[in-house]
Amino acid sequence: MTFFLGNLNAQEMPPPVKNDSITLAQAYINLTLTKEYFEGLSEERIGKILPFEIEELESITDPTFLRDNAGLYNFSWSLLYYNQAKFLFRTQKSTDRELLIEWNRSLEKAIEYFNISMQKSSLDQDNPFFELIKFEEGSYTALHRELYALKSLFTPYFNEDIYLDYKRIFLMAKNSDRFEIDSLAYFAGLYELEFTASIIDKKYDSSNYNFGSNTLPLVSEYNYNERDYDYHPYTDPIETAYLLDEKLDLISRYIQLKKLASKNNTDTLNWFESYRLYNDYYIFKDASLDKLFINKITKIEDPFLKTELDPKEFDVLYTGLRQNFSYASYATAQAFINLSLIQENFESLSNSHIASVLASNEVELSAVTDIAFITQNHELYHFTYSLLYENSARLLYRTRKNIDRKRLVGWKESLETGIEYYNISQKESEETEEKNLFHDLIKFHDEDVNSITKNIKNLKNQSTPYFNDDIYPDFQRIFYKAKNGNKYDFEGLKSFASIYNIRLDLSVLENKEYEVSSYKGEISQEYDMLSKLDLTSKFLQFKFLASDQFSIPSSGFDVEQLYYSYSDFLYVLEYEKDGFIIRELNTEAIEILFHELQEKFPYIFERGPTPGKYGNARDLDNDGDGIIDFFDNEPNYFFPEFAPLASASFIKRNFKPELKTLGKVDKFLTKEFISAGYKEQLHYYYASDGFALTTSLEKFNIDGSAVSADERFVKSLGGEGKLSYYEIFKSLFFEVESEFRMFALIVASNAAKMSKESMTPGFAEKLIENSYDSLPADLTNKILTNKTLSIFVYHFHQNDVGSTVELDLSGKISAQDHLKNAGLIKIIQ
Asked: What angle do CA 417, 419, 423 make, to 5 degrees?
């Protein structure tokens, strides 16, 4: 370069001054143009540009300049090595290993300089120099994309170069039990191909475990992180490693599995590692036997994998693995996963599919005989068996047709076994990190326990009527034996009840208070006895005590307890609508029983809220029905002491302390109900030391949308202004996929309790028929120091026209959601 300096001769000129900015700018521009016009430039031209620009960039040594322009300087080097790698690819005469390694090194340097440039970039600052040479955001984006493309272009060459070595090592493993896994790693390392021996090394990352090699881009239900070279924004650094080809990865996985399956294997695995090993085996097997996948990753002229990985070889692998390592953890975990999916998707699956899955998983579980594993994982092992039998019982219930006792007993035994396994699974055991990792991996969590608990309880509730109905004729036969021949066969009652493990209450005969079963942290294997059977049994017990066959003990017989039991008996009898009970335990039969009891066990029997103030109860019972006549004429309507089992419930303590009297509480509730469309649809009762109210049965939509007013409640009325619930169920329930609801609210000092027996349409009818239209007058000014609001929601569901209406006990909709849906949420706010 010649500089003009006035009158000085050329010989007197000073040497030219080097400008690093111009040098760097010129290098960046030249290399960018080379990249953009690469295909149009001659090899000779590119061969001159690259060495020249290397000298130019190497000439920039000023530390301050390099620091201030680190982004541009490193980007220019990245451009240079990118062009060099591309030039080597273009001028290839052969693809020997030495040349391929040179490709790899050039592209590696291009990527490293690019990543450094990203870290040092100062494009976010105004820089006229960068604007002048057009070094901008787009420069990064373009080169980033092209580096990705060149990696994809080189990858097949690198993999193909070591394929012969991998095949050679494969055959050594298959034919002579020589496992050169280190050699596999060495050959992959020549080109930085990502190689992991995760099966042998037992590597596991709980946040990213894909049940196989990190480099296997195989789409499966277990492989969550498929890796590829799809373009990603340049904000993330580019990795210098390359993907190991699928066929090489399969060879690697085979050799690792073959080593573990060999007779000379000395490795040991705990049950958690064994589980992952068998997962690796099955995924490897599925991929290797997938003809479409193998055809995709191999050339037509290359039959190596198709020939060498045949079904016979997988049998050899599997046999060796089973001889060396316990299968218990895999069998149990896989059964748990399969049975959980059946439980979760039960309603959408066919009966044949469910039956097939249950049968196959029962076989798998029966093979789990490793006592050490079962002891250490008793909760998972027993819980999985509980899933098996719970699903089996559900299938029996769903396919119920022409039910006989043998089928019902099988149904009951299946559910009973499921409950037994469930209860064992809930016993405390020692927690370990290994166990927690295992449970996290297969997603065995508390939600599973809650889910099966609900399902078992729902299934018990659904099964109870069938079991009771099956033995009801036997109870009736024993009843008639006592009625006609004075033969009281209580052992027979016990025997028939025990067929289904139905709890038979003999507290009358035993002259003691009924004891409620207590199962802390467990599900009871007992079933409730329906009231019609219980009434039959209790009537026989009272008759036996009143007969000459029973001798009153000289001491210890509690007559008062006897009449407490009799009072409870009358209360339940009042609400029972079964034909046999109505016919046989009629008014005359009850009067006769009462007189027999009075004759043998004299006692002033009073039934009602405050009977004592009316005088001698026996004198007031002129019709001998066991109830004081005053209460026959002026009934007091009480809500049950134990509310029927509800779909959902909610307790609000310290309810509306500012509302002192029950009358004011009623006004508040009435206002909210009327504003939500419940005018003239409220029914009142005495309850504990407060009051209760229920709504009429209403049709509702789960999505919260309104039901038209003329369809929401029943239009027609029965006799004397009372709602006819027969008409309600007749007009409303015979629809397709319908939802119906009734709210019950109880205001008292203490929270109301629920019974074990579900609300039925018949019982709902009784409640509505025996109610007040408004709050009883004697409660209006009553003051409760502390008020508790108990809310029970009874949600009835019908699947189809004419199908049975059932109380929904799934727990899917909370009481709060029901209140919100009905426009009543302000009641609890």
From this structure: 120
Nearest residue to 117 (alpha-carbon basis) of 246, 20, 234: 234
Query: How far apart (Å, rounded) are the C-alpha atoms in residues 303 and 91?
Result: 32
Distances (CA, A) of 109 to 3, 39, 799: 38, 22, 68
Structure tokens at 666: 């009623």
Nearest to 27 by CA among 62, 1, 58, 66: 58
Q: In 563-586, which positions are buried (b, 16+ CB within 10 angstroms) versus exposed (e)?
A: bebbebbbeebeebebebbeebbe
Q: Give me 5's structure tokens.
A: 């300096």
Residue tagged 């079963």 (tokens):
517
Expressed in angstroms, the distance from the first to the final Cα of the chain is 88
Q: What is the DSSP string of 387-432?
A: HHHHHHHHHHHHT--S--HHHHHHHHHHHHHHHHHHHHHTS-----
Cα 817 to Cα 647: distance, rounded to the nearest angstrom? 12
Phi, psi torsion values for 681, nearest 5 degrees? -120, 25
Decide: residue 653, CB within 10 A, 0-12 exposed, 13-18 middle, 19+ buried.
Answer: exposed
Q: What percent of the chain has pLDDT over 70?
A: 85
Q: CA 823 to CA 829: how far, in whole Å?
A: 12
Higher pLDDT, 634 or 676: 676
Distances (CA, A) of 289 to 305, 347, 572: 10, 33, 67
Strand partners, 502: 527
Helix locations, 601-712, DSSP H = 617-620, 629-633, 662-675, 709-712
Q: What pLDDT does residue 692 have?
A: 94
Residue that is written with structure tokens 């590692």 in the block? 273
Q: Look up residue 766 and give its two tokens.
A: 């009784």
Q: CA torsion 484→489→490→496, rounded to 10°?
A: -110
Give the separation between CA 522 and CA 533, rounded to whole angstroms. Answer: 26
Name the percent of the chain in helix, strand, coil, to the closest 5: 55, 5, 35
In angstroms, the CA 223 to CA 558 distance is 71
Strands 788-798 and 648-652: antiparallel
Task: Give the pLDDT band of residue 297 (cuts 50, 70, 90).
Answer: confident
Closest of 230, 72, 68 to residue 151, by C-alpha: 230
Hey, what are 676's tokens? 């939500």
Tens digit of each residue's pLDDT (9 = 90 or more) over 416-460: 888 888 888 888 777 787 788 778 777 888 777 788 888 888 888
Confidence (pTM): 0.58
The string of pLDDT tens digits covering residues 566-624 is 988 998 898 888 999 999 999 899 989 998 898 888 887 654 332 333 333 344 445 44
**Per-residue pLDDT, 616:** 38
Residues 491/495/500/504 CA torsion (nearest 10 deg): 0
Sign of CA dihedral 43, 44, 46, 51: positive
Q: Give strand pairing partners of 375.
A: none
Q: Do 215 and 159 form a contact (C-beta atoms < 8 A)?
A: no
- Indicate the SS3 state at residue 540: helix
Q: Which pLDDT score is estimated for 18?
A: 58
Write down the pLDDT at residue 534: 94
Report the distance separating Cα 779 and Cα 783, nearest Å: 9
* Residue pair 210/284 in contact by the 8 Å Cβ criterion: no
Closest CA to 486 of 425, 558, 540: 540
* DSSP string over 41-54: S-HHHHHHHHHHHH
